Amino acid sequence: MKKIIIIGAGASGVMCAIKIKQKNPQSEILILEANKEPLKKLSATGNGRCNLSHKDIKISHYDGYLPSYVKELILSYDIQEEFKQLGLYTKYLGNLLYPMSEQALSVKKVLLENCRNLNIPIICNTEVTQIQYQDSYLIKTLKKTYDADCLVVSMGTPAGKLSGMYSRKDILSSLQIPFYDFIPSLTQMELVHPLPLKGIRIKGLFTLNNHQEKGELLFTDYGVSGIAIMQLSRFFKKDSILHIDMLPDMSIEEVAHALALSTLDIEEEGFVHPRLASYLHNLPGNKAEHLKNLVLPVCSIRGIPFAQVCKGGIDIRSLDQNFQSRKYPYLFFTGEILNITGDCGGYNLHFAFASASQAAQGIERIDKDDSY
Questions:
Q1: What is the 3-class SS of 127-196, one letter each residue?
Q2: Is 332 in a helix, a strand, or coil?
Q3: Dihedral sign, CA of 6, 9, 10, 14?
Q4: Rounded percentage of the chain residues whose pLDDT exceeds 70
Q5: Rounded distance, CA 10 to CA 38, Å?
Q6: Residues in domain RsdA/BaiN/AoA(So)-like insert (predicted)?
Q7: Do 202 and 192 meet the contact criterion of CB atoms below 8 Å apart?
Q8: Which end of the chain is more exposed for a tag (fewer CB within 10 A), N or C?
Q9: Which of 200, 187, 182 is nearest to 298 (CA)?
Q10: CATH number corresponding to 189-301
């Protein structure tokens, strides 16, 4: 039986280890994690409730090169059954899938308890600095060098301020595997002129470069945030303009008529937060137009440390249908380090777990073939 090392004790790495060990209890598996604790990002996802997946799993919610086998995996993966087998029950709140407890801690505890029961060790505070291949894999860390017959790279991306000192691209450089540079995705927008409305939330229809999202926006000291804004951030380009329709269910004529009938000193207070109403009231021009099409020039999107996920990573075309390298034997990649990103709403976690399960199946097939 091959010695297996998994780099990264995030959602994908931990799930992959569990699936391998379930299928072959004799497997020797070790997980290396750069952070001081495993599943750190998972603990914060979904505002601490852990949005695991989405009822509307469609390929249109994913970016990146998606060969047919990846599409089939995304659509067929049964995440509810997967977690049920691990002891965690889930439920939908609207279209979003959460643990029954609505607590990310429940997901973390279930995954780590399965690791303990299967005798899968996780070594934290162990940052990998380089990977080399010499008939087997040498995994160099700041503390020591490990060797493995089979290596699963589940390091994720540098999004969210959870990254170590060493870049993924540098760590993998000696292997010369096709790798796209990371860029922020699902992040906030910085405005040319931030509005003095920090903390104010509005619901509406938001448009950026002909792409639209309905949802909620949060004004910040640097610009705007919120799920709808993060979705639109993927379509940012130089000199972008954000258009805000605060009353998408009313025509501009209906809004103008309502404002004309208002007896309020600040007519806009009948529709929006008083601070926002006061700001809009003092703008020159058509009051109804400001409510239906507030125009905000965007200077940039926020960088990788503030992003939920990143575009970039391993080129999927360099891997087979089990996410094994076509160049190196027994080298697998899972989760966010692959150049596939999903929308907000559980799509990225869905793929992280699905790719982990598929890689585990690939490793199981190799073990069976080698036993003959």
A1: CEEEEEEECEEEEEECCCEEEECEEEECCCCCHHHCCCCCCHHHHCHHHCCCEEEEEEECCCEEECCCCC
A2: strand
A3: positive
A4: 97
A5: 6
A6: 196-260
A7: no
A8: C
A9: 187
A10: 2.40.30
Q: Say if residue 328 is exposed, middle or buried (CB neighbours under 10 Å; 0-12, 13-18, 19+).
A: middle
CA dist 165 and 147 (Å) reads 22
| Residues paired with 171 in a beta bridge | none
Give dist(CA 90, CA 346) in Å, integer.
Answer: 13
Between 352 and 44, residue with greater pLDDT: 352
Q: Tell me what the pLDDT averaged over the chain comes to.
A: 95
Cβ atoms of residues 45 and 104 within 8 Å: yes
Residue for token pair 């007519």: 267
Q: Return d(Cα 224, Cα 63) in angstroms, integer.
A: 23
Q: What is the pLDDT of residue 161?
A: 73
Nearest by Cα to 164 from 35, 327, 332: 35
Residue 217, Cβ neighbours under 10 Å: how many?
24
User: Which is it for the CA torsion 62, 182, 151, 328, positive or negative?
Assistant: positive
- Domain spanning 3-184+310-370 has what CATH number? 3.50.50.60
Task: Give the pLDDT confidence score for residue 1 in this predicted structure.
Answer: 53
At 55, give phi and psi (nearest 5°).
-65, -30
Measured between alpha carbons, how far is 287 from 12 in angstroms, rounded to an integer?
A: 50
Q: Give the pLDDT confidence score for residue 372 in this predicted structure.
A: 40
Token pair 């990146």: residue: 64
- Give the pLDDT confidence score for residue 74 in this predicted structure: 98
Tokens 């407890």 locate to: 101
User: In the beta sheet, which residues pair with residue 93?
Assistant: 96
Identify the residue whose tokens are 């003095």.
196
If pLDDT is split at 50, 70 and 90, which confidence band does 365 have? confident
Q: Model-level pTM?
A: 0.93
Total residue length of the chain: 372
Q: Domains of the chain: which residue ranges?
A: 3-184+310-370, 189-301
Cα separation, 360 vs 362, whole angstroms:
5
State the residue for tokens 């780590």: 112
* φ/ψ (deg, to 5) at 20: -65, -45
Report the candidate in 270, 242, 265, 266 with the shortest Cα–Cα distance to residue 255. Answer: 270
359's CB contacts (< 8 A; 6+ apart) are: 16, 152, 322, 323, 324, 332, 333, 334
